[in-house]
Design a protein that fits this description.
Layout (H helix, E strand, L loop, with lengths): L4 H11 L7 E4 L1 E2 L10 E2 L1 H13 L3 E3 L1 H9 L6 E6 L5 H13 L4 E4 L22 H9 L3 E4 L12 H19 L5 E3 L7 H9 L4 E3 L15 E2 L6 H14 L10 H5 L3
Helix pairs in contact: 2-4
């Protein structure tokens, strides 16, 4: 490389969008022989995965803490931990292991199904969801409570009334339960478009998680890495190494020209 090209290449690197922070996506922490959707991690495997983080000097935190640290330039060594669907086993199995390591996490709850079960999983085993008491226990343990909508419906095909209920109403219910602001949202099935992202922002949330949001990537559509039962040490190492390459994308806030247009 010549002296003349070095500054130019450095300038190009500065213009490239930075990869978003690393956020892991969990669902249920339980022992089950039947897991057709691969959403369950056994407590033993989960404990090993937390040890893997700890052994590498990494600390699991809620999305709220991760984004605050990122804004302050203090996010090195932090990994976002998220749990979708609000299963009752989050309090029973995940929280004790998280607290043992001094970790926190964000659990995305369905306030329209409190005390119910995962009826949307047609072929999966029935699993109980958090009750109102369970939500309070999670919050008291230092976990961030986020919304997963009211009933776990696809938002991209929802009418305006349903979309408002799933975003605005779910937040209001959770805030009434916890007595604290609910800042985070998680899109059911990870499905988003510009309309749903805008609805989440306008409902008053400060951040939201998707799965592979592509050009909509922002603090209102954070990409996540699925973590499952098969994720041993070497697989976690590979996923962490590939994250900056696979998840590099625009980081504009929704409302900017690129995000609203859905242009990459």
């Amino acid at each position: 490389m010549t002296v003349a090209t070095a500054p130019r290449n450095a300038a190009i690197r500065r213009l490239l969008p930075k990869p978003p922070p690393w956020v892991a996506m969990y669902h249920s922490i339980a022992d089950t022989p039947d897991d057709p959707y691969r959403v369950t991690v056994s407590p033993v495997r989960f404990a090993r995965q937390l040890h893997w983080l700890n052994d590498r000097g990494l600390r699991g935190v809620s999305v709220r803490e991760l984004l605050a640290a990122t804004a302050a330039g203090r996010a090195k060594g932090l990994v976002g931990l998220t749990f979708d669907d609000g299963y009752a086993d989050f309090v029973e199995s995940a929280v004790p292991l998280l607290r043992r390591h001094g970790f926190t996490a964000t659990v995305y709850v369905l306030p329209g199904r409190l005390g119910g079960e995962n009826a949307w999983d047609a072929d999966g085993p029935r699993k109980p969801l958090l009750t109102e008491d369970g939500v309070l226990r999670a919050a008291e343990a230092g976990m961030e409570i986020g919304s997963h909508g009211l009933h776990h419906v696809t938002l991209t095909t929802a009418d305006d009334r349903t979309l408002a209920e799933e975003t605005r109403r779910s937040r209001a219910v959770l805030e009434e339960i916890t007595g604290t602001p609910v800042e985070g949202f998680c899109y059911p099935y990870g499905q988003i478009d510009t309309r749903t992202v805008r609805a989440v922002r306008e409902a008053g949330y400060q951040h939201a998680c998707a799965i592979d949001p592509g050009p909509l990537t922002s603090r209102y559509a954070l990409p996540r890495i699925h973590i499952g039962e098969q994720d041993t040490s070497w697989r976690l190492t590979a996923k962490r190494a590939l994250h900056p390459l696979r998840r590099r994308g625009p980081v504009d806030l929704p409302g900017t020209r690129r995000a609203e247009a859905g242009v990459s």
